[in-house]
Amino acid sequence: MLPSLLWVLAASTGLQRVALDTSYIPVPGTPTQQLALHCARPVVASHKSVLFIHGASFPTMLASGFEFAPGDSWIEYTARKGYVACGLDFLGFGDSSRPPAMSGPAGNGAPVTDAKEAAKQIAMAVDYMHKQMGMKDVHIVAHSWGTIPAAAFAAAEPHALSSLTLFGPIVPVKASTPSHQAQPAWWSITTQERLEQLRFKQILPPGKYLLEPAMDKTWARDFAASVHHVAGDAPDALRIPYGPLADIDTVEAGHYPYSASDVTAPVFVVYGNYDDVVNDVGAERFLEKFTGSPLRWRLRIDDGTHVVHLEHNRHSLYESVNAFIHATKNLAPGQP
Question: Name one Pfam family in it (predicted).
C-alpha cells in the first residue's frame, strides 16, 4: 500500500499515525542471532518508554502492534500518549532470528526460548533502550506467558524498570509436579486453528463474540507471514518455539522461576472476566506475593477473555494500563 494512501486511511479513522521502526539487537555469543525491537515514537521527543512483551504463540505485530485500522494499535496508542512504545520479538518469533533448533526435527533440540532465556532477552532490550535510545524510564507491559520472563527480569534487576504490568498472567490452577518428560524444540499449528482458539467459543456464552472485525479479515494472513516456513512442512503449518508451553506447564503447577517478593517496581495485574488462565481469586493470591512492590493494582475488565487486547473492549485495557503508568510517575522503587 502506498504511504500516501496509508495517511489518507489513518485520517479517516481520526488517528494520527506515528513513526514506527525496527531495530535489531545482536545476541552475545551467537553472531548470526538478532532480536527485533519494534518502536513507535511520539511526535514530541520523549525519554520515557513502554516495552510490550508478547505471549506464547504470536509476536509483537500480531499482538500489541496489530493494526485494527491504520494508526490503530496498542503500540501507536501508547506513542500518542507521549511514550516511546516498543515491542520485543523473542528469538523464534516475528522478525527476530530463528535459533538453529527451529529448522530441524522438533525432537532434536531442547525447548526454544523458555522463560530463563526470554528474561535475558528482555534484559538486552531494556539495556538497549536505556543506552542506545536514551530512555530514562522503561515500563514493561507483558501478556500471558510473557508475564513469566517479564516478572523474572523485574525480580533479577529491580531498578531497571519503572513499572510492571502483568496482563492475563499465568497462575497456578493445580497442585502438581511439572512434567519431566522430554519436550520438543518447537510445536506446530495452523493460522486458522490459532484464530479459532482466540474466539474462545467454549468459554463465552452462546452468541457472544468479542474479537474485533479486523481479526477475521487480516490477522490469520499476517500471522502466517510472520513465521519462517521450512521446506517439507505443510503449507499452512507454523513452527512455534516450545519453551513457553513448557514454562506454562511448570507455572500452572505452582513453580515460578522467580520470587515475587524480589520485585520492587509497581505492579498491575489486569485480566478479562472470561480469562481461562486467571480469575479474581487467582489474581488476588498472585498479586499478594509481590510484597516488595510500593504500589499494587488489580483490575478485571468485564466482557473480555485472555486476549482483551484483540477484542471490542481493548480500549478499556489501553486506558487502564496508561492510568497505572501515570500513577507511578512520582514513585521510586521501594518507596511507599
Answer: Abhydrolase_1
Angle made by CA atoms 129, 139, 282, in degrees to the nearest 5: 140
137 CB-side CA count, 13 A: 22
**Cell numbers representing residue 23 in the block:** 531495530
d(C-alpha 142, C-alpha 269), whole Å: 10
Q: Which domain holds residue 187?
A: 19-61+71-174+182-327
Average pLDDT over residues 185-205: 97
* CATH code where residue 311 lies: 3.40.50.1820
Dist CA 314 CA 307 (whole Å) = 9
Q: What is the DSSP letter of 25?
A: E
How far apart are alpha carbons 215 and 222 in whole angstroms? 10
The pLDDT, as a whole number, for residue 8 is: 36
pLDDT band at residue 336 using 50, 70 and 90 as cut-offs: very low
Contact 204, 274 (CB under 8 A): yes
User: What pTM value is reported for the model?
Assistant: 0.93
How many domains does the chain fold into?
1
DSSP 169: -
Grid cell for residue 200: 474462545
Count the neighbouring beta carbons within 10 Å of the beta carbon of residue 159.
Answer: 11
